[in-house]
Amino acid sequence: MTPFIYFLILSYLPTVIGLKKFFEAFGEQGWKAYVPFYNVLILLKIIQRPWWWLLLFMVPTVSFIMWWIMLYQLYESFGKKSAGEKFIGAVLWFAYLPWFGYSKNLKYSGPIDYTKVKRSWMAEWVDAGLFAVVAATIIRTFFIEAFTIPTSSLEKSLMVGDYLFVSKVSYGAKVPNTPLSFPFTHHTLFLTKDTRSYLEWIKLPYWRLPGLGKVKNNDYVVFNYPDGDTVALGAQNQSYYQLCREFGWGYVNNPDKVNPYSGEPFGNVVARPPDKRENYVKRCVAIAGDTLEIRGSVFYINGKPSYAAETMQHHYIVKTKDGFGFNQKVLDKFDITEPVENRMIPGALILTLPNNKVDEFKTLPNIESVTPLIGDSNVYDPRIFPHSPNYKWNVDNFGPIVMPKKGMTIKLDTTNIALYDRIITAYEGNTLSVKGDKIFINGVPANSYTFKLGYYFMIGDNRHNSADSRYWGFVPEDHIVGKPVFIWMSWKNGFMGKARWDRFFTFVHSDGLSRSYLIHFLGFLAVMFGYNYFKGRRKAKAQPKS
């Protein structure tokens, strides 16, 4: 058990002993203070708050805010007026409750009726702020959360600079693994580079509320980055494990060593729980139970070609008739970033083009040839999962591989253990060792394994410029966050850069975006403003003149 669990257990007895005296002073039987949750209902009765506050009290993260609010109002109901004393009593409740409860001046006076009391502006703002924090935390945790596209791995489907709303109810909201966290932050406090925004004193197991559906093939999905369980704080946007494979474990774990990619020190290495790992968004190409294979850059699911969106992008080798590149007008029209010179083929460029723009691009008068850039099969790329020379896979040729399904049992040997070792240890909490030709799970010889969770394969639509499951493998079901459903604004070159007006107020579908409803929203606002304006004028005219 964690230290905080021990603290809660040890603090429970003095808490209920103190509450017993408050209950008796109110006229309730003291034994009710010892019954979990029922004692909260009696507490709400004392402070004259609705019973459904108990539901808020049971919500992770929100529960501690509600507990402090209820204690604050409990002390008011027994005559405490000093803000400082009420604050101390709320924070140190385990000591203050029995101390105040057994004092001679404990007398119930009832909660303060704030409709009859003139409150300071600060008190009003504090109340409004607490309500906003509680409401927003519940909405953000269990219903919908704002999200920004961080990388170009889904271009031109979902683009850098898109501001999304992600639905938690689509697949069912996860109960936070770490409920003790600062509101409106993910893993790092505002205005800091590496200060944790959460405490791990309480760790809750994985549990998901019922959702509107399940993850389906080709859904866009927001999930916690699986490789993000361990992070070098000076290189949070890079895979710690890939850095270790490339530069060595000892080098990366030295906080003073410089990251060759960024020129900055790696910094301290920390572990993160699943709900505090980076949020990624990709397309789910394979769900639990599917067999996936990539042949010549074409994805096959259960032996059939996978869906290919029109906005899906690939690299192409482009040769021009005059050997030169393209002017800015052409680059802007096809939304092409800076072309890369192909050093293997003189006069050729490497461009990234979406499927729906390739045919039009070929018609440009300066084009000689446009050839897909596809890697050779049976070539081992050490960056590609499972990072074993036994599997000669690369970004364009991969698998076949079966997505583990909850309850599925697979045979294990010293070759295929590379596919499942991270599932067995990091995701499902077992120990694993290989000695000679023997595999040991939790110290016991094993030649098979039964999965506790389902797993998915997430891929970017920008197929040759995407760090995805081809690099770090399976995504466990307990890492699934939600489904992007709505883009409310989109900016090229950063916030308040060039507006992509056609992407404002659009709905996200697996095959692209809906039409923009921005003009409809602005029209609705104009109608509401006009209605309120003329209603106010009519009301003013109807009032008798003094």
Describe the 3D structure.
Among the domains are: about 5-140, no CATH class; about 300-370, Alpha-Beta Plaits, CATH 3.30.70; about 515-545. Helix content is about 30%, strand content about 20%. It contains 14 helices and 25 strands. The protein has helices spanning about 5-25, 40-45, 55, 60-75, 85-90, 95-100, 120-140, 240-245, 250, 330-335, 360, 415-425, 470, 520-540, and strands spanning about 145-150, 160-165, 220-225, 230, 270, 280-285, 290-295, 300, 305, 315-320, 340, 350-355, 365-370, 400, 410, 430-435, 440, 445, 450, 455-460, 475, 480-490, 500, 505-510, 510-515. Strands 1, 2, 3, 6, 20, 21, 22, 23, 24 and 25 form a ten-stranded antiparallel beta sheet that branches. Strands 9-8-7-14 form a four-stranded antiparallel beta sheet, with no helix packed on it. Helix 4 (about 60-75) crosses helix 5 (about 85-90). The protein starts with a helix and ends with a helix. The model has no long low-confidence stretch (mean pLDDT about 85).
